[in-house]
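Predict both folds.
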Amino acid sequence: MKKLFLIAVLFITFSTLSFGTIKAQENNQASDEEQLQQLMDEQMRQQLPPPPKEEIFRARVDEIVEEGNRDIGGYQNMFQKVKVRILDGAEKDSVHEIEHGGAFRITDQQKVKAGDNVVLLKYTPPGSESQYHIVDKYRLDVLYVLLFAFFVLIFTFSRWKGIGSFLGLILSFVIIIKYMVPQIVAGTDPLQVSIISSLIIMTTTIYLAHGFSKQTSVALLGTAISLVLTGLLSILIVDLANLSGLGSDDAYSLRLGQTADINFKGLLLAGMIIGVLGVLDDITTSLSASVFEVARANPKQKFKDLVASGLRVGREHVASLVNTLILAYAGSSLPILLFIVINPNNIPLWAIVNSELITEEIVRMLSGSIGLLTAVPITVLLAAKFASRETQISALGDFRANSEARVRSRASSKKTLPKPRAK
């Protein structure tokens, strides 16, 4: 039954995935007017001067030649003259003396020292000499160490389940980067793409992390139902609040170029669904495990008793998770909160909260929290139903086994009784 359920889910998932891909391809077939407009745009681009050439290198700071402050428009800007050595690409091992800062302000954290690895930009305008600029510090070596330590800790504490969870994490990123983002850029509705992606992610990651069992299948079913309800609620709230999805500067930047035709309202909804998926996974798997453990510990527990136990656990879990979710959103929106507190232009508080940027974050936070609340009773009811049935079947099997054992014991005792002597 478990294999049949998994096959059915995977069949629906990949059938929907194929449908989404076909739909994206159909949306890419431009009309005659669009093709004519594209041709005119291409002709205009050909008449424009060629854009400057930009190349990115990894480099190391060999020496600080000079550093100090320079007066630029009444401001004292820090500057550094440094020698950098390129570490990769066609110009590997070449050394360049460049200025860092001066024309623009840099902070103490942006200053470099000898031995630092940096990201170097080579900027070549048409008909001019190339210019080199330090645009950032190189950090990937630190990230590699952190990733390795994270993997070791997961394996140490969770063994093979931790490895499955880690593989699920990698798979989630692959689905988002290789399927979800390209489909949205191709013109497919972001809400549809997010639902398909969520179905694939939660099916594979939950089974990879927790194994194939009735307990895991209940958690998956509870996650799916709760996610659908959260999506429907998010659609309703976004419509009632008249949100367009263009509340942030990033969304406005996406309106330029090849991403101009994206459905930004759908993109906002997709972000809500993906954001709440991970937390739903956490609460449904833990609740399902709790109910099944209670049923195994006391097989005489009835359905209503299992529901009551599961709800008590769920209340405690939700109380902490909602707080975690709100703090996570508040942490990511800390610059906005600082702007609200400082309020340099004395804008009324109601006008700030009414802005689409703030309203989007509030709606995202509330819809995610409501999704968690709906997940508790749904998962508890499903888990209690299947757990009580499993314990009943197990108890019936034990009863039959004990009965058969008693019958065999009586039969063997009759065979071993001594025969009466003949008179």
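Second protein follows, with its predicted structure tokens after the sequence.
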Amino acid sequence: MPGTYQVGDPNGPVAVCALTSERLIGPLVALPGVAIAGMVYTANLGITRIIVNITSNPAIRFLLICGKDSALFKPGQSLVALSEKGVDEKRRIIDAAGYDPVLPSIDPAQVARFRKQVEVLDWTGEEDLEVLQDRVKSLSDRNPGVFVMEQKEANMARLQEEFLSIRPGGQREPLIYDPKGYFVITIEPEQGEILLRNYSPNHTPAHEMRGRGATSMLLGLLRDGLVTQLSHAGYLGEELAKAQSALQFGLRYDQDRPLRPRESPVKQTGEGAQAAASAPPEPPRIPRVQAVSVKQLGEIIPGTMVDLFFSVTDLPREQVLGGVFLEPDETGTNQTFPRTLQRIEVEWGPTSKLIMGGATDLVVGALLRVVGKYGGNYLVHGEQLVVLTRVAKVLE
């Protein structure tokens, strides 16, 4: 299942849960014997995904818990309690101390399978890589071998999550109907601030707010009762997040418009002389290739240029991104993408052009637009990778 993790040696006997210490994942997953390393924040959905992913690989026989635990959810303590005592009739982890440690969407039989397959080692709080490396080695040295499943365990349902499908879209009320008025959002790059001004329905100035973060600014508006419509609040949250991204990455922000590269200022050379300007940076050119759907992807001939959207779920090999195909945005704004079940892999390298981000942004959870040659078997050789993580979202 998708999550914040990296896959190492699939035959390794050790899984590592670094709790909230994300920086530990990369170094630990590279150690010999580590099959998977990831992090977790919650003691419900987070632990559910750990159980599903670990029991999908019977080679994993140890779960090493390390890093800093969440003070609210306490998933580390909950994992230890789960290993020792399991769940009660309400599927609540017995003696778990964190917030809402309930696993309603997973079969108790699979919980029992997890407890039989995996020995949990509690090293919560440990963040020293040398100490953890020694610990991983000692676990690998006593590998009991692949867990042997009974037939009923091999055939058990992995997850019992059922969702009611709904479609995106709808009609937002005109903002003039909000009795508190409307908002104009701009950014001030020199000050590193977002400027938000509230006008009353009769267009007279009412309130002004300056800030650097979308969340805190929206919470301030809600605190002071300046937004009365849910659709209006959602709109403001989206626009403030775009403004924050523009400040962080040096982009141009115009309300209700997609983010764009910011032009360089014109420099005058002197009175009476011809004005000389430093040329604005040319926006990245995306080849005119039709964005493909998941159905079209299966019919494309290898070697064809493709333009697609992609959500990274794992890093299977060096300079290869694994994940799921996203359907093109029906609105044409490239801001929201329906997820599919089709797995694809994207290969990138030194010749790949990275736009709106760099190599450090190619991580689990990244949202990318990829232009490149289709290599067959759902592998794309990426020539241009546009990082959309902070300006777009996936529709679950």
